[in-house]
Amino acid sequence: MDHVAEILSVVAESTDNDSPGYVDVFRNAIRRTPPVFFRQKYADFFWQCATSIRGWLPRVVVACATTESSGSRALADIWSRVDYNKDAEAGLLEHAKDESRHARMFVELGRLAFAKAYDANVLDAVEECLSRSPKNINKNTSCLISEETLIDYVVQLNIVEIRTRLHLHFLAPVYYACAPPNARIKVESILRSLARDEASHVSYTAGLIDSWAQTGDRKKLAELYSLRLSDYNEHTIAHCDKAIHDYGQGLLPDLIGD
Ligand SMILES: [Fe+2]
Ligand SMILES: [Fe+2]
């Protein structure tokens, strides 16, 4: 799979122009710091976990619900501390609402696909703790972030959304296959809706990066993107190492190493 071409086509589909600034920054950063999550070994790792570790998928669904919820809170917080970039503000608020909705969609996915895998009331308890959709929230003008920090956050969001979309791409067919036949239409609708939204999150953050790249220092942006990619490579490897330690029982090979 040509991940770079695929991401750029997702971005191109949602914009009127070719996003030359984003394309430049993205290609430059990927060349310097190839993401570990683009490696075939990473997809193999997901496949191995999903097919050989009992209870892994239901746990992933709950983990997704809680991370989507905390992501929504973080996005609303960033939105509240920006009052000088209307495009970024609109995108961040919409994004925060989407992630809050996704958290509940993952709970519903758990109920539909893995109902028997959870102890009674586990999913109700998870749902209870999810953040509410951000409505009637106010700006925190005493604690605004600089444009430099905003750019840094948006670069990180773009990377995270690319990775999230990829995870969904790996696991959606497995979720679908695990669901009882009478739940599959609903499961498919949830998965399609998640995939559409995650693509839109990649696109709006790419659009913001494109506008900064067209008016600002493109080289510096590519350096920042590359630096953040390297951070996320480290997080990703640490996360996979933990999964191997927790669930591998010595059976999983090092799928991430060179
Ligand atoms: Fe999401
Ligand atoms: Fe997202």
Category from helices, strands and their pairing: mainly alpha
> Per the principal axes of the C-alpha atoms, what is the gross shape?
globular
Give the DSSP E fraction (strand runs of 2 or more residues). under 5%
Uncertain spans: none
Sheet bearing the most strands, described? none
What integer value in Å does the Rg equal? 19 Å
| H/E element sequence | HHHHHHHHH
Any overview of this molecule?
This protein is mainly alpha-helical and 258 residues long. 75% of the residues lie in helices and 0% in strands. The protein has a single domain, classed as Heme Oxygenase, Chain A (Up-down Bundle), CATH 1.20.910. α2 packs across α8, α2 crosses α9 and α7 packs parallel to α9. The longest helix is centred in the middle third of the chain and has 32 residues. The mean pLDDT is 92. The structure holds fe (ii) ion (2 copies). The site of one fe (ii) ion has 4 residues, from α5.
Give a short summary of the structure.
This protein has helices at 3-14, 20-32, 40-52, 56-80, 86-114, 122-128, 147-178, 184-215, 218-247. With 258 residues, it is an all-alpha fold. It is globular, with a radius of gyration of 19 Å.
